[in-house]
Each structure stands twice: as C-alpha cells, then as structure tokens.
Amino acid sequence: MTKIEITTWTSDAVILDLERAIHEHRLPPGTKLGEDELGDAYGISRTIVRAALLALSHRHLVELKRNRGAFVAQPSIREAREVFEARALLEPRTAHSAATRMTEMDLALLKTNIRNEHAALDAGENGRALFLSGQFHIEIARIADQSTIETFISELISRSSLIIALYWRRRAALCETQAHHALVDAFANRDAALAEQLMKSHLLDLVASLDLRNVTQPPTSLREALQR
Which residues of 86-125 are buried (b: 16+ CB within 10 A; e: fewer)? Predict the structure, then answer.
C-alpha cells in the first residue's frame, strides 16, 4: 500500500491515508484490514489503528465484524442508490451556489484538477483519476461556501468510490472529464442555472454507468435456503 510520506503517524493522518487508498481502489471493497498489519505498515500501536478504523466505520468506509475484524465496506445495491440519490439532491444546488461565488483562482484550481485527471487516465492510473474526480466535486462544495454540505458531500464521494469499484460497467464511471469541462465553462460564465442543470445530468450519466439491478444473491447455506 502506497502511503503519504510523513514523519509521525497520528490517528487522523492514518484515517486520511486509508481513506485515500480506499478511494483510489488500492484497498478494494472486502479487503481485510488487519490491526497488526496496519500497525506494522504505519509504525503505530494497535490503539491508534483501532481508533482510525472506528472513525472510518462511522464514515461507512470500513465495516467492523465481530470476531472477524475490520474490512473495507461493500455497499449494497440499496445503499448505492441512496448515496447517489443524496448526491442528486445536494450537488446540483451546490453547483448553482458555486457559480455565484466563483473566483478566477477557483477556476484555475478546477482546471488544474481536470488536467491532472486527464493525465492519470492517460497513464492508466484509474484509481488516481477517480480520486481526482471526487476532489473536483468536493472543491465545488467548498467554493459554494457551504461547509456542512461540503462535509456530507465529501463522505458521499468516498462512499461512491466503493460503489463504483463494485458496480461499474464502463469507464464512464470514472466521471467523464468532458462533463467537468462543461461545468467549468458554466462556472466561468457565472451561469448558475446551467451549472445546476449540468450537474444533474452529470450525476445521471454517472449512475447510468453502474449496474444497480437487483440481482438475487445465492443463499449462504442450506439452512438459509430452507428457512420459511
């Protein structure tokens, strides 16, 4: 696992590093997160590891299973739908607000993000491209100056990365950068209504790139199959 290079690993630093690794699909859904292994990787105590895993479980990125340990979460189809429904409620209005507050510095930051996302895709670094795509959406919430909503969107973006890892069916799930270019153009023109509509369409396209059909899961045991 590639880690951020810092001198001292605190619980907060470990949380951020693991969250990014999850977001970039370096730690796929279902990965077991052993306390001893993480402690060795970061050079920290199991107490700090447990605190980090607990915090990530509160963000729905890690699942703590009794007597089995911690695992990268595996969102269900229902959870996937709920996450994207929440994003559809929040992000179009956030894009509208961002357009009215956009500065030239903000525009430059968003354009740099898109260039870096293109570079990652060209290099075949899909996980990094996905992370940068998520950062693009989080930056829009920051620019909108809505800190509470920004916190919600940040968590939803992280959970979306797990959903994409499980359910994507085409590369468009990485967030088509063309949609990001269109959003930046709307922001540059301070066209709040267009920015809102573009964000709606973008999220619909993103959901369309996922396979969220209800698939019947096989029973885990005969006892389960025969229960009435």
Answer: bbeebbbbbbbbbbeebeeebeeebeebbebbeebbeeee
What's the pTM value of the predicted model, to 2 decimals? Answer: 0.80
What pLDDT score was predicted for residue 7?
A: 57
- The answer to whether the CB of 101 falls within 8 A of the CB of 144 is yes
Sheet architecture: strand order including 62-65 = 32-33, 69-72, 62-65
Helical H segments across 25-146, by residue range = 35-42, 46-58, 77-101, 104-122, 126-143
Query: What's the pLDDT score for residue 5?
Result: 54
- Contact of 178 with 125, CB cutoff 8 Å: no
Assign 71 to helix, strand or coil: strand
Give the containing element (helix H, strand E) for 65. strand 62-65
Map tokens 């907060």 to a residue: 12
Can you tell me the distance from the alpha carbon of 72 to that of 61, in angstroms, rounded to the nearest whole number? 6
Distance between CA 90 and CA 121 in Å, rounded? 27
Percent of the chain scored above 90 by pLDDT?
60
Amino acid identity, residue 76? Answer: S
pLDDT grade for 221, boundaries at 50, 70 and 90: very low
Q: pLDDT per residue over 166-189, tens digit each?
A: 888 755 555 566 899 999 999 999
By the 8 A CB rule, do 13 and 52 touch?
no
